[in-house]
């Protein structure tokens, strides 16, 4: 391990242009306007816990917890001082202070590069000013830290530490710590580099469909244009504007557009959903630019601009063409990570978190080094299109997104690409902030139709030969919605199954019309209307508040069977007088469970985001009618499954061709 000063004259140095091309990941710092908790994504300034691998020393003060078999490393600070952020790429470590870069955006996810890239070695290159010490660590897949390199520095110093990727087969990260002595130590800039320039061209088209989110869209355009390194790799920025509140009319648009110049292309078209917007982006990129990659992003995001560079670097150094997905951080709680990655259960054919991972992780509470499960590499089936990079060669061979409006288009595309030999990697440190799904339940609102129909379409294309597990899961969800008095969701599911049974030819035609039909059907049911507040409806009877006990979930199979039997018995009884006009209880969203609502005849239930309530009313005849119809439709799908699979697979070529999208959709909206 040597500094660049010591390595001078070896003939292995890269030129400035090559260094830029070899950049894998810059060291970056939070913006001045970021909330305090966001620092935890860039810096670890507290303690770090690992499996016991060393005893405390004067250089590494800490304590050992024998019961938990943990070594707790205490980062030292004098008088509570913390690092001072000087710019987006530079930071000052005050005297007698230690700061670690073992954080989400600055640690290097080595196992992902080991698995997917052509690289055998990466280089940590830092420019430092002042006196102190640099220590480089790596972790194992179990989260055990291992000291790799350490050196004292003083004055103006350039440090170059190569680290081999061989030990990272199953997991592990690399990071570094800076510690100062009697004077501050400045990190002028730094990053993780390859030992060679990246193959191919740095040329990406960024696309972002938008629907009535003009301020968010303008902020993202500004973020793309303000950073010179990001701006230099853009061939085009394509915005299908599908709303009535136009991006061009938003304050700040002219300034953001000026940064991008003629690379910015805004296309006005009706609301064709996410798939219609993303398909337009891919079409424009392939037909009208020479880009090497297409980057999809949502419009309701806050962009970390370096994520564009990191995704592009990962794709360029990949062993073979592949999709590179960005992770989702919570826009409401900025230090929270949504999930590490997602897979599809091939039996029930439903998406879920990748095995051995957790959701909604808060780095402000548990740092990367404390989160041992996060050191294992996570493999995925697909990446959602809040941020996903698709190589041009993949788009040309795999085709356009399916015309599904929303839901399952990104998942289906990832599965389709995988079937063509193009895998997906969801890469830590490549991320955007997106509105969290924690306070959403789109499975029961108007989106329930698209969840149900598109799941069946994707399963017909990529799912099991035997659909029984999928249909059993679907029936369980049907019964749950019925007990929750969400009759509109069941009506939408039935509409979805009928449309699925009709075959693939109607998908293009329904793209601009399905949403209106869905909304119209939903309004026929009481639970399809959201009221501003429970106070706008009659109050529950006197004494109802005294009975506001919230039942615990039934535990074990016996208790669950009893609760289910009781819920079904209640559906046989006549509705209590007056329950359709006056709710029996006001139920908070967190207590709106099937084992409570199945006992009631009328209740207001708060929406997941807390902005309103639905007044749900039990209807005995409607319950049993909906259940009988759902059972019949599930039987039809099961009987017709082999023929349906053939129809959808044979019709897929038409659905994903550029020519079909142009003829049936885009030519109408020039």
From TrEMBL:
Pathway: Cell wall biogenesis; cell wall polysaccharide biosynthesis. It is an enzyme of class 2 (transferase). One of its GO terms (molecular function) is glycosyltransferase activity. InterPro entries: GlfT2_C, GlfT2_N, Nucleotide-diphossugar_trans. It comes from the Bacteria. Keywords: Glycosyltransferase, Transferase. Its EC number is 2.4.-.-. Pfam families: GlfT2_domain3 (PF19320), Glft2_N (PF17994), Glyco_tranf_2_3 (PF13641). SUPFAM superfamilies: Nucleotide-diphospho-sugar transferases (SSF53448). Residues 80-195 form the Galactofuranosyltransferase GlfT2 N-terminal domain. Residues 470-667 form the Galactofuranosyltransferase-2 C-terminal domain. Belongs to the glycosyltransferase 2 family. This is Glycosyltransferase. It comes from Actinomycetospora termitidis.
């Amino acid at each position: 391990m040597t500094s660049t000063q010591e390595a001078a004259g070896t003939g292995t140095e890269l030129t400035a242009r090559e260094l830029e091309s070899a950049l894998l990941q810059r060291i970056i710092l939070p913006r001045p306007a970021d909330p305090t908790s966001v620092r935890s994504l860039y810096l670890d300034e507290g303690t770090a816990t690992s499996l016991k691998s060393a005893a405390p020393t004067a250089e590494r003060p800490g304590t050992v917890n024998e019961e938990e078999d943990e070594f707790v490393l205490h980062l030292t600070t004098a008088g509570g001082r913390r690092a001072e952020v000087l710019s987006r790429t530079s930071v000052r470590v005050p005297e007698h202070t230690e700061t670690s870069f073992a954080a989400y955006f600055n640690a290097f996810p080595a196992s992902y590069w080991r698995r997917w890239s052509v690289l055998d070695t990466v280089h940590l290159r830092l420019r430092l000013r002042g006196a102190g010490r640099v220590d480089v660590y790596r972790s194992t897949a179990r989260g055990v830290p291992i000291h790799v390199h350490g050196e004292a520095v003083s004055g103006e110093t350039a440090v170059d530490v190569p680290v081999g990727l061989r030990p990272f087969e199953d997991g592990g990260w690399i990071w570094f710590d800076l510690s100062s002595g009697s004077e501050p130590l400045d990190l002028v800039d730094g990053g993780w580099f390859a030992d060679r320039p990246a193959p191919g061209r740095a040329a990406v088209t960024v696309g972002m469909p938008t629907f009535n989110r003009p301020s968010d869209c303008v902020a993202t355009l500004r973020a793309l244009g303000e950073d010179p390194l990001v701006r230099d790799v853009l061939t085009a920025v394509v915005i299908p504007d599908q709303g009535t509140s136009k991006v061009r009319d938003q304050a700040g648009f002219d300034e953001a557009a000026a940064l991008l110049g003629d690379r910015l292309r805004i296309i006005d078209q009706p609301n064709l959903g996410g798939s219609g917007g993303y398909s337009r982006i891919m079409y424009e990129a392939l037909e009208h630019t020479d880009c090497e990659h297409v980057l999809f992003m949502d419009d309701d995001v806050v962009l970390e601009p370096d994520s564009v560079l990191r995704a592009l670097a990962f794709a360029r150094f990949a062993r073979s063409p592949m999709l590179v997905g960005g992770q989702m951080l919570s826009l409401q709680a900025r230090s929270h990570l949504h999930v590490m990655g997602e897979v599809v259960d091939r039996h029930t054919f439903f998406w879920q978190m990748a095995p051995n991972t957790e959701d909604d992780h808060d780095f402000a509470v548990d740092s990367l080094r404390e989160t041992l499960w996060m050191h294992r590499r996570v493999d995925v089936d697909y990446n959602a299109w809040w941020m996903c990079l698709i190589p041009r060669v993949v788009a040309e061979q795999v085709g356009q997104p399916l015309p599904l409006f929303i839901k399952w288009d990104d998942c289906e595309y990832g599965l389709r690409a995988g079937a063509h030999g193009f895998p997906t990697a969801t890469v830590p440190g490549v991320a955007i902030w997106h509105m969290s799904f924690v306070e959403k339940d789109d499975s029961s609102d108007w989106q329930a139709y698209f969840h149900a129909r598109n799941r069946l379409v994707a399963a017909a294309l990529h799912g099991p030969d035997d659909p029984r597990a999928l249909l059993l899961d679907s029936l369980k969800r049907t019964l749950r919605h019925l007990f929750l008095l969400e009759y509109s969701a069941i009506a939408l599911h039935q509409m979805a199954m009928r449309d699925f049974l009709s075959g693939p030819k109607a998908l293009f035609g329904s793209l601009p019309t399905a949403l209106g039909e869905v909304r119209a059907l939903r309004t026929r049911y009481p639970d399809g209307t959201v009221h501003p507040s429970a106070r706008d409806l009659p109050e529950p009877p006197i004494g109802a508040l005294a009975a506001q006990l919230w039942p615990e979930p039934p535990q074990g199979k016996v208790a669950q069977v009893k609760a289910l039997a009781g819920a079904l018995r209640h559906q046989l009884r006549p509705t209590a007088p007056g329950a359709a006009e006056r709710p029996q209880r006001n139920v908070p969203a967190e207590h709106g469970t099937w084992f409570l609502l199945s006992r009631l005849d009328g209740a207001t239930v708060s929406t997941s985001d807390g902005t309103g309530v639905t007044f749900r009313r039990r209807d005995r005849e409607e319950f049993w009618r909906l259940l009988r119809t759902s059972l019949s439709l599930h039987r039809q799908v099961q009987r017709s499954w082999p023929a349906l699979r053939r129809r959808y697979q044979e019709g897929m070529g038409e659905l994903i061709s550029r020519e079909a999208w142009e003829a049936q959709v885009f030519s109408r909206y020039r």
